[in-house]
Amino acid sequence: MSETKSDSAAAPRDYIRETIRDDIASGRIKTPVTRFPPEPNGYLHIGHAKSICLNFGIAEEFGGRCKLRFDDTNPAKEEREFIDAIEDDLHWLGFDWGAKACFASDYFEQLYDWARHLISAALAYVDDLSAEEIREHRGTLTEPGRNSPHRDRTPEENLDLFARMSDGEFPDGARVLRAKIDMAAGNINLRDPVLYRILHADHPRTGDVWCIYPTYDFAHGQSDAIEGVTHSLCTLEFEDHRPLYDWLIENLPVQARPRQYEFSRLNLTHTVLSKRALVGLVEGGHVSGWDDPRMPTLAGLRRRGVPPAAIRDFVGRSGISKSHAVIELAAFEACIREVLNITAERRMAVLRPLKLVIENYPQGESEELDAVNNPGDESVGTRKVPFGRELWIEAGDFMEDPPKKFFRLGPGREVRLRFAYFVTCREAVKDADGNIVELRCSYDPQTRGGSAPDGRKVKGTIHWVSAAHALDAEIRLYGSLFETPDPGSNGDIIDDLNPNSVEVLSGCKLEPALGEAKVGAAVQFERTGYFALDPGTTPGKPIFNRTVSLRDSWGKIKAKG
Ligand code: ATP
Ligand code: MG
């Protein structure tokens, strides 16, 4: 037996992949064909990434194919902007779908013919009931539905009405086409589901050619069949639609027999992943747009500096199953740190600057010191960092009256300046209000590179930026967009927004090498976190977004008192 990639120990195992293995073994298929079917009514989010990695991952593992198909059957909410953004985000995440994307709208003509096929077979009818009346007739989980008075129209009458619907004779909502299945079916989805509705709206691709549009249920499985999809993978809310999916495939002259399989959605704490809710955040101005760095969208995560590898890793680890689970946002952040710890270059940046003057360093002089770019990856080498008499350090790295375990600067204390020298604090200069505005220090020229020839040790190492060479920057620190783990559980999600989800710091000081930073590629600011240059940066005015913080052990010590 030849070994496919998926047989290796590292390959994920789950019931969908098991099914595919069985289908290959039994000869039902040679290789799987999957599809990712976004509706272009919003941007992709991390939940979609799970579906993307599953569909494209399976195609890759089994030597099959994965199609990108836009499920563009509701022109009222769909836009060209979303189609373009979805394609960009998929490429960024690392996936490709060959020559061109497919669209459900490519099949409108075929779907229309198949609708007529059902009508001719007395398996579909035009109904004049309003949406409200259809709901009333549908029954409940415990009570059967009632037949529409229009259910027994002849195929001829139905064909005529359906043609007139499509010719634009009737206003929106006046009539629908319904499958004629069983109003007493236990599964409500089989109680004569709607297949077509009238919508006089401009479609992003077909313009005003159509004024009737197929529903998701009618378009989806048939598009799968047209494209030769073998395994149509979707989230659990479609489980109850599967009998309808199969009914349509069985009753239409389709060329292929796709099958639907379900898995549970990815859910994250402190996060909303419903597109309707995300649209609300954007349209309500609660965020700056779909790519706001606090959004769980791929565009937002990218802008925050999250590497695609961390997203693929995370959704892969979340696993494929049918059980409902909510994953801690912290678990996602841990994945981001894990990837960036290996890949991100280190730089020095001071977020809340305090001036440090080295009194015994010669006036007007400076020198360049070697700094390691990534202690975990020698191949990225070192860079030069300018050093001089006046430096910026973090205000939080000095305490006037430090407790024992504070290993940074205090009066009379000595610390190492990263990659540079030992310095000792001589005096803290205060303004008229008693605020510390400057530290007067001395340095030991013998300690260049960070160690003392006499073997004396210092406990703390702090980062710094040369004042004469510093770049000024704005730095945005992000927290979670929602304060509560389960936003919206007690009503409106808007009430659960975290009012402190962003803190904007200005006048931050960067080492000059950060002038070369690239948009979206996160770097580690030593001791502070991972940050990425914002695409909205203008020349000479860098803006950095915090991707994720480093774990702060001092914060924990402080919290314990
Ligand atoms: P809506 O909220 O409008 O129903 P959706 O999030 O389902 O939208 P689609 O564009 O229909 O958006 O989704 C495309 C595919 O992504 C579907 O197959 C859907 O099942 C899958 N998907 C969406 N959200 C998640 C999620 N949280 N976890 C896993 N898969 C998801
Ligand atoms: Mg959906």
Brief summary:
With 561 residues, the protein is α/β, with parallel strands linked by helices. The protein has 13 helices and 25 strands. Strand 17 and strand 18 form a beta hairpin.
Explain this structure.
The protein has 561 residues and is an alpha/beta fold. Among the domains are: 104-218, Glutamyl-tRNA Synthetase, domain 3; 275-343, Glutamyl-trna Synthetase, Domain 2 (Glutamyl-tRNA Synthetase, domain 2, Orthogonal Bundle); 346-470, Ribosomal Protein L25, Chain P, CATH 2.40.240.10. Helix content is 26%, strand content 22%. Strands 10-23-24-25-21-22-11 form a seven-stranded mixed β-sheet. The chain has a seven-stranded mixed β-sheet with strand order 19-16-17-18-12-15-20, with no helix packed on it. It has a four-stranded antiparallel β-sheet with strand order 4-5-6-7. α7 (216-227) packs across α8 (242-251) and α11 (308-318) crosses α12. The longest helix has 16 residues, at 46-61. The protein is elongated and about 100 Å long. The site of adenosine-5'-triphosphate has 15 residues, from α2, β8 and α9.
